[in-house]
Design a protein that fits this description.
alpha+beta; 32% strand; globular
């Protein structure tokens, strides 16, 4: 198929902005890393950080009625000291729970200023998940931050292990 000079000029003119955009940031070192460049949703910036709490026997027993350990390699959680890291991402923020044994579960998250916390999917269920594949991944929590204390409460969570780990008062490190 042949092209006229006018057609080639029009194609070239339309590609120049794309070439300039592609070159942006290619070798230039920015003072702000990309992972921190994204702005938090209004009213949620204070949520990001690292927290800790002791998951108690009472926390675990509270969810016994809804617990299913039918999946592969599933077992009832044990009381433990847990660390919760809520990290702002670009494009996706995450919430990561780590036990004293180093076992880590990370989930994508979306928080709103009105105190809603959606957990739609695991970051890598092959590396860590609260519940097996027979339990739906998505969950919804409420969150409230007062001073250094973050309170999480399950609103809709079919996974008892996640509920017993996340629901409670967390203290900012």
């Amino acid at each position: 198929m042949s092209r006229t000079p006018q057609t080639l000029l029009a194609i070239t003119a339309s590609l120049v902005p794309l070439a300039l955009a592609a070159g942006c940031g290619s070798d230039h070192k920015s003072a702000t890393p990309a992972s921190t460049a994204a702005a938090a949703k209004p009213g949620t910036a204070s949520l990001y950080g690292t927290y800790e709490r002791d998951v108690t026997k009472a926390d675990i027993e509270r969810t016994d009625k809804t617990r299913s350990e039918a999946g592969p390699n599933q077992e009832k959680p044990k009381p433990d000291h847990s660390v919760l890291t809520i990290a702002q991402g670009d494009p996706q923020s995450t919430i990561t729970a780590t036990g004293s044994d180093g076992f880590t579960v990370a989930m994508d998250m979306d928080a709103t200023a009105s105190g809603k916390l959606d957990l739609p999917t695991y970051v890598d269920p092959g590396k860590g998940a609260f519940c097996g594949p027979e339990i739906p991944e998505p969950a919804t929590y409420s969150w409230r931050l007062k001073g250094r204390t973050l309170v999480l409460k399950a609103k809709n969570d079919p996974c008892a292990d996640r509920d017993s780990t996340l629901t409670g008062k967390w203290t900012r490190r």
